[in-house]
Design goal:
Layout (H helix, E strand, L loop, with lengths): L2 E7 L3 H7 L9 E7 L2 H8 L5 H17 L4 E4 L2 H6 L11 E3 L1 H9 L4 E6 L5 H14 L6 E6 L1 H8 L3 H18 L5 E3 L5 H11 L7 H17 L1
Parallel strand pairs: 1-2, 1-3, 3-4, 5-6, 5-7
Helix pairs in contact: 5-6, 5-10, 7-8, 8-9
């Protein structure tokens, strides 16, 4: 049986990353992608559009996706995740939030870590959720130094993918070279290629959401297959 996971993205560039997820031999999975960039655009341009209204929009999206037929849902946008009110969620399917496996990896490290963002709008929501995750799972509060590269985010929103990856890679290299003993992490899925390139160039591990997500997806599929 091939299981189906519906994915909610805020930008189409995330689709290619999700399609690259490697699964253990014998596991079969079909991805169905939904892209909604309009919510973030409206939040950035309409001051009267409240967080509650935005959260309701996310809930409606997930409920529509569930009714369209899926075994589970993956949300890849950290802004959408921060807006999601689980108490109001009527969807009964498993919902995998891309940041939680990544948070688990971050929380297991006791020292300082540099966390690079390109989208300024995701910083507050992501770090707040990270600290809540740590507290709720018995970890000490992570020692995070946030770094923001907003000019790179403008590139990806204009579809300039290669220029975006180059800008992110330059900043990741700078962070690694400034303090080689401090782990450096790329906060967003769109930064994965730049993180991998930095690893190869510097011979040092750069954290990013893709690795822990692959493990979480495999665990989810195995759990669904046993049902």
């Amino acid at each position: 049986m091939t299981l189906k996971i519906a994915c909610l993205h805020a930008h189409e560039s995330n689709i290619a990353y999700i399609n690259r997820i490697r699964l253990p031999e014998g596991l079969s999975l079909s991805w169905v992608h939904y892209v909604d960039p309009g919510l973030l655009a409206r939040r950035g341009s309409d001051a009267s559009f409240t967080d509650e209204q935005a959260g309701t929009h996310v809930l409606e999206q997930l409920e529509w996706m569930a009714k369209a037929g899926a075994d589970a849902i993956l949300v890849t946008c950290t802004n959408y995740i921060a807006l999601l009110d689980d108490a109001r969620l009527a969807v009964k399917l498993p919902i995998l939030k891309i940041d939680e496996p990544f948070f688990e990896e971050i929380c297991r490290h006791a020292g300082r870590q540099a966390l690079l963002f390109t989208n300024p709008a995701t910083v507050e929501g992501t770090t707040s959720r990270l600290y809540d995750y740590a507290e709720g799972n018995g970890y000490a509060r992570p020692q995070i130094e946030t770094v923001v590269l907003p000019e790179a985010f403008d590139l990806i929103m204009r579809g300039q993918q290669e220029a975006y990856q180059d800008a992110v890679e330059r900043e990741l290299r700078r962070l690694v070279d400034t303090d080689p003993a401090r782990p450096v992490l790329a906060a967003q899925l769109s930064m994965v290629d730049a993180a991998i390139r930095t690893e190869h160039a510097r011979g040092i591990r750069v954290g990013h959401p893709m690795r822990p997500l692959e493990d979480a997806v495999a665990e989810l599929i195995l759990a669904l297959d046993r049902q």
